[in-house]
Amino acid sequence: MSTLLYALGRWSYRHPWRVLVAWLLLLGIAGGSAALFMKGTDNAFSIPGTEAQAGIEQLSRSFPQASGTSAQMVVVAADGHKVTDESYSSAIEHTVSSIENLDGVLAVTDPFDKMVTGLVSDDGSAAIVRLQFDGQATAVSPETKTALKDFGAELQQSLPEGSQVAVGGDLFSQSLPKISIIEAVGVMIALFVLIVTFRSFRMAWFPLASAIIGVALAVSLIFVATAFASISSTTPLLAIMLGLAVGIDYALFIAARHQDQVRAGVGPEESAARATGTAGSAVVFAGVTVLIALIGLSFANIPFLTTMGIAASVAVAIAVLVAITLTPAFLGFVKGQVVGWKRRSRSSRSSSGLARPEPTNDAATEESVPARRSAPAKAKRGFADRWVTGVTRHPVVTTVAVIVGLGVLAIPAASLRLALPNAGMQPTSSEARQAYDLTSEHFGPGFNGPLIMTGTIVTSNDPLKLMKDLATEIEKIPGVKTVALATPNQTADTGIIQIVPETAPDDPATADLVRELRAQHDRLLDKYGVDLKVTGFTAVAIDISDRLGGALLPFGVFVVGLSLILLTIVFRSIWVPIKAALGYLLSVAAAFGVVAAVFDWGWLAGPLNVDKIGPVISFMPIILMGVLFGLAMDYEVFLVSRMREDFVHARARAGGADRALAVNAVRSGFTASARVVTAAAVIMFAVFAAFVPEGDASLKPIALGLAVGIVIDAFVVRMTLVPAVMALLGEKAWWMPRWLDRALPHFDIEGEAVERELALHDWPEPDTRAAVVAEDLVLAEGDIELYSAASVRVEPGDSLIVTSADPRAARALLLTVAGRVAPTGGRLRVAGHLLPERAAWVRSHVGVALLDGADDPVAELRRAVRGGAPIVVVDGADALTSTAVRDRAAAVLRDAGSPTVLVSATDPDLARALLAEARRSGTAVLDLSASALPSEVLS
């Protein structure tokens, strides 16, 4: 992958206008499509397979008047007045008759109707007008909502001064999130951090511009998707938040690597290609981990959450693609002007501001002025160097302090409560929130979240008495304040019971009441013969919260298990992945603890503009776990991969490893990567934190959790706990069983393939024209070597016969040359392309004919040469036993032009006969049975 990214980076650098115009064109198409086809977001939460959802579906079929969404108008009389006064009751009745004509309204309940009870408060200070709509909240038109609010405003004006009217209910329980100026502050902070990091205004704009283009494209595609999918209003904002954060960071990693290389003297074009191949490989790996975690949200089996995860993963995928293409393109615009201003050296100027003279090595001067000789000044150590030295010098104290500290910070997480958003979570300036609070104050909190029980009563001879008896039974259950309604439908085949709980819809006691009502199912079925289901908006919200709570453990096992597997593959270590996974769990627990302390305990609720203390949105934990997992892996990879690189190089130089060498590698690797990781973490924190003060009530706890989680994971876990634990483990940190090392695949996330290509650029000679060059090639399976020390050179148009007592060895060598099998040692270049790095190109340009066991060997050979492959490998020439078959095969090779042919056979004479008949010269023989001795060129 790194070699492909290397080529992509070079191409993007050379053609910056093409890349930029291509992305802008895609953005224009997506934006135009969104403007034409988008249908708006949908906040209707549903959860198939639950009792609440089944109840709603049953009501929609048999009792549609009760299955749709509802709203309510709360009227509160002025002090000293009652709503039963003529000035109030007449105005309310007039409003009720006006509302009945609204489009989509099925029924309006007059609180003064003699058939209705409970809609006028006990003290007469307030009344509720209930409205029932056709369909769910998303089916009600914006015009109807606006008209309903207008009726409320007109009623307010007609009532005596001091009275209050507020419109709310389920229809208005969801607020539409919006972008405020505060979010722009996060972007400006990110720009400032980029300027400081790059020490260049020009370079600072590149990550920001690429991230904005990627986010705009992702959001446009999300709105296009609303034309054929149900997408919640929180989804675009989540995509913006994630897309900005990872988009800026991914471009930062590539641009920072490029700047360091240019400062070191690498040419700008070569540097852009290398940065894309090396840092870009890590970016792709990091992006894939985030994608997997987001797609893993489908574990909860909740459609809207699955859609949210997919939409957010699209934003991350686009951020990766933009980073590896648009970033090198931006670098191509400025060429070599990326170094930035020089860091001011404190030792280069005197206190008076005059430059100090540079030290001289002139021996004569030193001898003539011996009194002025002094020891050279020590280079000033950076903060990162001093920090990691202190951490690794006291690893036990550091480890214990971090674990205990994060454990204490996680304590509030035990009290974290979850619920779907309702009007009570909206700002106090919201009319829906005012209606919610007025209802709670005058009628009790349960009136904001009534429950519905419904069932088929077609077998009853007296449906009215049956519903009355059921209401009496249910009113006895603890937690039920009153049964507001118990009635059959017009056809008397379905009954509905509306229950008002004593507690608010997001109170845990209401969830307990739902479970208790369901626990009464069998008893009521036996006694009354009615199969009752508990449903309604509140019950659906509780079911979703329960489903999400149940999904946390399997999702946690998924992401932790995934981190163990991925990091084991990347770092070839057992202890590093375990340490990383445990660190991730500490970060998540601490982030949960901070969110609970703010939203449940009320700490810093005022400064953070938290309007209501209470439960947080149900899908906050699973989204926080998924996103933080991907970001934590980012920091782990960028920090620890540099430590591993330094350790491997130091071990090779020293011929072995000990604890001191391993600790030095931890320190040097940390110091080399701390600047970029620090900048990336600060940027992510700024972007996430900007969504907290004025953010949507649903997004606010997610943004706070991510902001805190990023700070804790980057600075406390990765940059403090990780080096301490690595110092404790010493050289054992990089231990891995040999059998596991052989079994696991290799991921090149640090661009080792690019580095190898650069190192072997002139091997075997600059601009070689050889078709195949192999030097000390080895292929082993476990402890068994299929072949070893295979060295050969074949020029274009020549041939090679590979022979061995074991046909598997010859076939393995040919498949290695064809790019189908990766060698385990040695060097190999095919048609100018180094293997295994360029195996994809070789596979598409080298034909393979496996004659042994083929039904028609000639047809197999014909298929291999089809398309004009410049190199053809033919395994098992022994299958061409008859002269006639061999002649036909030779004719196929002749007709193919002049490809380079590599043939394997246990009997080399058969292969010679085939090649002679094909009129080929310059044939070499490689005998793998003789320890792959140098090839013999035959005349």
UniProtKB/TrEMBL annotation:
Residue span, SSD domain: 213-333
Region annotation (Disordered) ranges: 347-377
InterPro entries: MMPL_dom (IPR004869), Mycobact_MmpL (IPR050545), SSD (IPR000731)
Subcellular location: Cell membrane
Gene3D superfamilies given in the database record: Multidrug efflux transporter AcrB transmembrane domain
Coarse class of the protein's main subcellular location: membrane
Record's bilayer topology term: Multi-pass membrane protein
Transmembrane parts of this sequence: 179-198, 205-231, 237-256, 277-302, 308-334, 396-420, 551-571, 583-604, 616-635, 672-692, 704-729
Keyword terms of this UniProt record: Cell membrane, Membrane, Transmembrane, Transmembrane helix
Identification of the protein by name: MMPL family transporter
Native source organism of the sequence: Microbacterium deminutum
Lineage of the organism: Bacteria, Bacillati, Actinomycetota, Actinomycetes, Micrococcales
